[in-house]
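User: My collaborator sent over this chain with a note saying "see what the structure looks like." That's all I know about it. Can you take a look?
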Amino acid sequence: MKKEIIINASSSETRIAILEDGILVGLYVERPENERMVGDIYMGKVENVVEAIQAAFVDIGLEQNGFLPFADVGKEYSGLSESVNHLETEEKQKSKFQKRKDKVRLKSGQTILVQVTKEPIGSKGARLTSAISLPGRFLVLVPRDKTIGVSRKIVDVKERRRLRLLAKSIQPDGFGLIIRTVAVGKDVYVLRSDLENLLKIWRRIEDKIKSGPSQKLLYKDMGMTSSVIRDLFSPDIDHLVVDSRKLYGEIKGYLKEVAPSLLPKLDLYKKHTPIFDEFKIEDAIENSLSRKIWMKSGGHIIFDQTEALVVIDVNSGRSVGEKDHERNALKTDLEAARLIAHQLRLRDIGGIIVIDFIDLILDKNRKKVVAELKKELKKDRAAFDVLPMSNFGLVELTRERVRPSLLFQYSESCPRCAGLGRITSKSAIVTKIERKIQQMKCSSGARRFVLKVNPEMASYMSEGLKSRVRRLMMKFFITIKVVSDPGMKDDNFILHSLKEKDEDAISP
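Assistant: Without extra context I'll predict from the sequence alone. Here is the result:
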C-alpha cells in the first residue's frame, strides 16, 4: 500500500491530507484562530467537584471549564500507592478503580496541573488529565512515574525486550518512559538525545510552576503540522509533499535532527495547479462533508450528526443486483460497512455512533457485517468498541474523540435554524401572529396593527383574494398593514399596535 502525506499551506489555514493508494483517509485542518490544544499543559483551578458524576470542573482560562474525570486524576491527588502491578487481573483492576474514585482528594479552589486530552466540542469543555506526559519523536516522558512501556504496535518480542532494556538504562529518577513505534531499530544514542530534549521541556515547565500559581498555560504542544510530522511521518510513509517553501524548510530542518533517513521522501510542490487539485483531494473533501454518500452498488448512506451522537442510515436504493432479498441486503450491508469505516476515519467522527443497516434475517449474516466493520476499523489509529447487531439491524459503537469532526471544522451553525436543520413553517408563524393579535387586543383594545415580516412571508400572508391577512382582519374586526422587510429572518415577525405604539418581536 502506497502512503502519502500532502500538505497545503495558505494564508488562512493549513490542511494535511493522508492518502492510501491515492484515496483520502484522513484530513487535518489548522487555522490561526483555532489552534490545536491537545497536549497543552495548564496550571488550573478546581471550580467544583461533582461526586455524582465522578469528575471535577477545572478553570484553565478558557471560555468553558475543563472536564477532569476522577479516572484521569494522577496518583498525587488520589492517595494511591506509587507501586502499581500492571499485571493485575481484570477483577483487581476494577476493584482498584473503585478505590481510586473513593480516594480522589480534590476540593474547590485547589490548584492542579492538568493536560488537555480532548479538544472542546460544542458546549463541552476540554477533557483533562492530571497524568502529564510529553511526547517526543521516539519516547514519551511521563513525569512523576516509574513505569516503562513499549508501544503495542511493536510486535517483535526480541525488539520489545531490547528497547525496554535501553529505556531502563537511560531512565531518569522520578520519570516513566514509553517507547514509541518509530523507535524500532534505533540505538541508545538516538533515544538519549530525544530524552534530553524532553527533560529540557519539563524543566522549563517546572520553572513556570515555581513562578506562581496564577500562571495558566505552561506548555504549548506542537502545532497540527509539526505533530503530524512527529507522529505520522514514519518509515512506512512513501512520500511527503508540501506546497509552502517556508514549511518545507522547517520540516527539512526537523528531519535532519531526528530522522535524516526520511529526507529523500520529502518534496516541495512547484506546479501551478493547486496541490489538492493535483492529487484529487478537493473532490474527496466535498464528498466527506455531504450528508448522503452513494455506494457503487447504487445504495446510499445518510449521516446525521448531532452533539450527542451520530446516526448512520444504510439504504439499498437502486441496489437490486440479486433476486434473493437476504443476499442482496448482505451484499449492500458489507459494502456499507467498508464505506462507513472509511468515512468515520476521514470525517474524524467520535463518540457514540449508531448504524441502521438493512434488515438481515440470518444471524450468521449479521455477524459477517459486524466482522467486516471491525476489520475495516482496525485500520484506524483511533480506539473503537463495537457491539453485536441487534434484532432491529442496529450496530452501536464508540470511536475515540480527540478533536471536533471535519463537519464542525468546515461549517458553522445556521443562523436561521440555530443548527436544527429545519425552520418554523409559515402556517405555524401565522398561528403565532394570530395568537399575538388576540393577546394585544385583549390587553389594550387596539384595532390597528402594522405587521413586519420578511418578503417571502409577506407574500405568503397577502396572496389570493381570501388572503391570510384578510381572514385575520375579518376574524378580529381589525386592520393590518403588512410591511416587507428583507432584514427580517424567515421565522421572525414584529407586530406593532398603532394605538399603544408598542412593539413585539417574536422569535421561535
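A starting point for your reply to your collaborator: The first helix runs from residue 90 to 103.
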